[in-house]
Design a protein that fits this description.
Belongs to the DDAH family. The chain has about 260 residues and is of the alpha/beta class. The chain has one domain: L-arginine/glycine Amidinotransferase, Chain A. It is built from 6 helices and 15 strands. The strands form 5 sheets. It has a 3-stranded mixed beta sheet with strand order 2-1-15, covered by helices on one side. Strands 3-4-5 form a 3-stranded mixed beta sheet, covered by helices on one side. The protein is globular. The two termini are about 15 Å apart. The model has no long low-confidence stretch (mean pLDDT about 95).
């Protein structure tokens, strides 16, 4: 297992009004979104992960995407500062949840003018790659870098131009293997990785979760499924159509960590 715990939040009905800056696929169907979310939770549980399910926050349409308002590690947690003002109040709610797992002196916060979203933070064997995107700025990165340094974790900035977040275009699978697409193919920041290149037409499926007990990937992307299987990964598919409509991927729906 690469992590033992996951925090998720059940979507509220307001999820149909979630932010859509990229997808342009129409509004989610609420009942289908709920069913897909439950199937996602079941997949994690079946892989041996202890899943904590948080109550919906009806006032915050994007609050099911718990990865953005926090970054979690084994030894610390960071409450981020999302770039979109509509998501700022989620910070307090996710902190309450994390206080069950982390001591107060190991929970930190990103403060204005810094902005950071968890979708831009990719951990690779103790090193953090942080996307400088439309949602994460240099000040947010510098604050995060200083926090991570307290626990002897380096942080490296990676400019993001074509994607919402860093992990929209690349995901670390472990064992030196990286799923990449678009601007991150042959990117110098990732020169030392074995790159598994995802074609543009299946770019959505670059955002996967390796549990250490199988990779969970979005359903309906046969090229990526074959690519993962060819590299020895057991694959489990999750329907994600309703979350794709509001710019969400698999990693967005959970905070994954090992309890300490």
């Amino acid at each position: 297992m690469l992590f033992s715990n996951a925090l998720v939040r059940t979507p509220g009905h307001s999820v149909i009004n979630g932010i859509d800056d990229y997808a342009d696929l129409g509004r989610p169907d609420y009942e289908r979104a709920l069913a897909q979310h439950q199937a996602y939770v079941d997949l994690l549980s079946d892989r041996g992960v202890a899943v904590t399910v948080l109550d919906p926050l009806e006032a915050f349409p994007d609050s099911c995407f718990v990865e953005d308002p926090a970054v979690v590690a084994t030894d610390f947690a960071v409450i981020t500062n999302p770039a979109r003002a509509s998501r700022t109040p989620e910070r307090g709610f996710i902190r309450l949840a994390l206080e069950h797992f982390y001591s107060q002196d190991h929970i930190f916060e990103i403060n204005a003018p810094g902005h950071l979203e968890g979708g831009d933070v990719m951990e690779v064997d103790g090193t953090y790659y942080v996307g400088l995107s439309a949602r994460t700025n240099r000040e947010g990165f510098e604050q995060f870098k200083a926090i991570a340094a307290q626990f002897n974790h380096p942080a490296l900035a990676v400019p993001v131009h074509d994607f919402l977040h860093l992990k929209t275009g690349t995901t670390y699978l472990g064992d030196g293997k990286l799923l990449v697409t678009g601007e991150f193919v042959n990117h110098p920041a990732f020169a030392n990785f074995t790159q598994l290149v995802v074609p543009a037409e299946e770019a959505y499926a670059v955002n996967c979760i390796n549990t250490g007990n199988g990779v969970i990937m979005p359903a309906g992307f046969p090229v990526v499924k074959q690519l993962l299987e060819d590299h020895g990964f057991p694959v489990f598919e999750a329907a994600m159509s309703e979350f794709e409509k509001i710019d969400g991927g698999l990693t967005c729906l959970s905070l994954r960590f090992t309890a300490h």
